[in-house]
Write a structure and sequence with these properties.
455 residues; alpha/beta; Rossmann fold; Alpha-Beta Plaits; six-stranded mixed β-sheet; four-stranded parallel β-sheet; 16 helices; 40% helix; 19% strand
Length: 455
């Protein structure tokens, strides 16, 4: 006989705090809504939620002794084995709260919950290394709470003068042993990730050698970035209606309307209160954003807090020092809007945004045309005389640029036209006149651009 085993999800009580006088991106209730989605994504059942307004964060219990006791009683009454706080708790907060709640209730914070989701969703070796590093760096200062029952001396005074053979000596706490082991593992992970970073750097160098522009798709988690990449490239990137469904960056080749080829990279989704340990651990992945020629910011137009989510993304880009890159904004999921008026606040903040549906394809053609125009906007006018031995460069000019005039002479081939700014340095030794940036009156017509971009 066989029987099916049903896994009963853990029940959790969510706790949010709003400090009087502060105005975060999301109000406490909206932030708790997001925390509830994170909990469900992690496989946890949300039993209830509590919100507290305070003048300041309590240094011992985060919410104050009275609220902490009320939270404990509520968790016990609901049968919740988890209490999840919507902010990152310090080591002292976790230690004091765990002491108050006892062994039957575990204390987690938003950072630990996000790291748990990352651990579930990491598929590549790189992603697993990044998640492990972030988890260990998060746990290291909190080992006092985790190993309190093992923090005893194995020798020295703990063994006493009559402690017996093998127990006398300087001794060492289990906590110290564990810290040293975790410290060594962190060093190993950082060394491995440096190799990953170097490997990514070589990949980027090869892309730059082939002169393919890179478009990084950025946005809040679950905004539809992977769906958009699939629509643009015909790829089969994992799609799921949950937060942080994909962690590993995926790059696909996309042919734009004028024939130009670009590489589109789907990056890890952002979220408000993104833990600093995650940003640090995912540095190699997030460098894909900083190295891009263009950012494609995808916003979930159906989300009631779409503007706050967009602001969180822009804040994270500023933290990564990538906010000066050119950005095209796409308002996604317009096919799911009940009323077109829902777009008004977004179009007021992003007047040049494209309303699209990555699922149905609505607005995709206009979006890709805009991407191509943005990639063309930094083109440079050149007049060069290439020796015949530089046939590869002549081919590059024809393939990636707009040839306006070509003349064959005894000394070589003279080419006059425009090339993308990222390629101009290849031709500098053979220029006849100083290159100048394209002015509006020299913008190629669509026919000319299409002809020049045909591969």
């Amino acid at each position: 006989m066989t029987s099916r085993t049903t896994v009963v999800p853990e029940r959790a009580l969510l706790v949010g705090v709003q400090i009087r006088g502060q105005h975060p991106l999301l109000a406490v209730q909206e932030s708790l809504d997001e925390l509830a989605l994170l909990a469900v994504t992690s496989g946890v059942e949300v039993a209830d939620r509590l919100a507290q307004r305070v003048d300041h964060i309590d240094p011992a219990t985060f919410v104050g002794a009275g609220k902490a006791e009320e939270t404990r009683q509520t968790a016990v009454a609901l049968g919740a084995g988890l209490v999840i706080f919507d902010d990152e708790l310090s080591a002292r907060h976790q230690r004091e709260l765990q002491r108050l709640f006892g062994e039957d209730v575990r204390i987690l914070d938003r950072t630990a919950l996000i790291l748990d989701i990352f651990a579930q969703h990491a598929r590549s070796r790189e992603g697993q290394l990044q998640v492990e590093l972030a988890q260990l760096e998060y746990r290291l200062p909190r080992l006092t709470r985790m190993w309190t029952h093992l923090a005893r001396q194995a020798g020295g005074r703990a063994g006493g003068s009559t402690g017996g053979v093998g127990l006398r000596g300087p001794g060492e706490t289990q906590l110290e042993v564990d810290r040293r082991m975790i410290g060594r593992r962190i060093s190993q992970l950082k060394a491995e990730l440096e190799k990953v970073r170097a490997h990514r750097g070589r990949h980027r160098a090869r892309r730059q050698k082939h002169d393919a522009p890179v478009v990084a798709i950025v946005g809040y988690t679950n905004a539809g970035k992977s769906t958009l990449l699939n629509r643009l490239s015909g790829a089969d990137v994992l799609i799921a209606d949950q937060l942080f469904a994909t962690l590993d960056p995926t790059t696909r080749r996309v042919v734009l309307p004028g024939g130009q080829v670009a590489l589109f990279t789907d990056t890890v989704g952002f979220i408000q209160k993104l833990p600093t340990t995650v940003v640090a651990a995912f540095r190699a992945t997030l460098e894909e954003i900083d190295e891009a020629d263009l950012l494609l910011h995808v916003i979930d137009a159906t989300h009631p807090q779409a503007l706050a989510q967009a602001e969180a993304v822009l804040d994270t880009l500023a933290e990564l020092e990538a906010d000066e890159l050119p950005i095209i904004t796409a308002l996604n999921k317009v096919d799911q809007l009940i009323s077109p008026d829902r777009l008004n606040p977004l179009t007021a903040s992003f007047p040049a945004a494209h309303a699209i549906s990555a699922l149905t394809g609505e607005g995709i053609d206009a979006l890709t045309s805009s991407v191509q125009q943005a990639l063309l906007s930094d083109w440079v006018m050149l007049d060069i005389l290439l020796p015949y031995r530089e046939g590869a460069l002549a081919g590059l000019f024809h393939k990636e640029g707009h040839v306006l005039q070509e003349t064959h002479t005894a000394d070589g081939v003279r080419l006059r036209g425009r090339v993308p700014g990222r390629l101009a340095h290849h031709f500098q030794p053979w220029r006849r006149t100083p290159p100048g940036r394209r002015t509006p009156d020299t913008t190629p017509s669509p026919t000319e651009a299409d002809a020049g971009q045909t591969r």
